[in-house]
Amino acid sequence: MRQLQAAVVAAGLLPLAWLIQGAVRGTLGANPVETITHTTGGWALRLLLVTLAVTPLRRLFGWSALVPFRRTAGLLAFSYACLHFATYVALDLGFDLAAVVEDVAERPYITVGFTTFLLLVPLAATSTRAAVRRLGRRWVRLHRLVYVAAVGAVVHFLWLVKADLREPAIYAGIVASLLGARLWWWLSSRRASLAAHPEATSAER
User: Fold this and answer.
1) Which residue, 13, 55, 174, 204, is the most exposed by fewest CB within 10 angstroms?
2) Nearest residue to 154 via CA among 88, 107, 121, 109
3) What are phi and psi for residue 63, nearest 5 degrees?
4) For the residues 92-96, what does the mean pLDDT come to?
């Protein structure tokens, strides 16, 4: 299992290796900062969607072997989100914190992106087994923030793109499908529970 985890991490770091190689060789295009920003942000979103896809794939196809890699994908997503934010602060704005605050306050797509990044921080911080044991059921409730973060990441991308909306629209469709599946299962479970305990429904009335 450790070898597989290492292989997943190595695969997840390939885009970063490509960026580093491009930066060294000067092959990141006419606007390397933009390339780095878009690449890190894109992979943060893709890996976030991978974490959301694990449960539907397990329930639909019985792919339980994917579950141990969900946390790995989530931490990789957060790592790319950190690089995305750091690129914006350091390379795009030159550590001008006043400009960062102004952008967050006045540019909606940056407001959403920054909020999404903040939502990911407690999820990454509580990704250890010790945190799961310590928080108990609160851990599950806290990590439902990943749904909000996924929506926020897609909205950030949609509002960023000014012309070709096809790629962010694809991601929006994936997020809608993954969250829709969860909602369907929750409603089905709710109906089954009410059918099994009709006296509870009568008492509520």
Assistant:
1) 204
2) 109
3) -85, 65
4) 95
Query: What is the reported pTM?
Result: 0.91
Per-residue model confidence as pLDDT tens digits over 112-161: 999 999 999 999 999 988 999 999 989 999 999 999 999 999 999 999 98
- Name residues whose C-beta falls within 8 Å of residue 124's C-beta, 6 or more positions apart in sequence: 74, 75, 78
DSSP helix, strand, coil percent of the chain (3-state; round to 5) = 85, 0, 15
Domain that holds residue 143: 2-194
Residue 6 in domain:
yes
Q: What distance in Å separates the CA atoms of residue 12 and residue 77, rounded to the nearest whole number?
A: 9
Three-state SS for 100-143 is: HHHHHHHCHHHHHHHHHHHHHHHHHHCCCHHHHHHHCHHHHHHH
Closest CA to 75 of 34, 106, 44: 44
Asked if 172 and 158 count as a contact pair (C-beta separation under 8 A), the reply is yes
Residue 82 lies in a domain: yes
Helices 32-61 and 14-25: angle between axes, nearest 10 degrees: 170
Q: Is residue 64 part of a domain?
A: yes
Q: How many CB atoms lie within 10 A of CB 19?
A: 19
Q: How many domains does the chain fold into?
A: 1
If residue 41 lies in a helix (H) or strand (E), which one and from where to where?
helix 32-61
Q: For residue 129, tell me if it sits in a domain.
A: yes
Q: Which of 15, 11, 40 is nearest to 157 (CA)?
A: 40
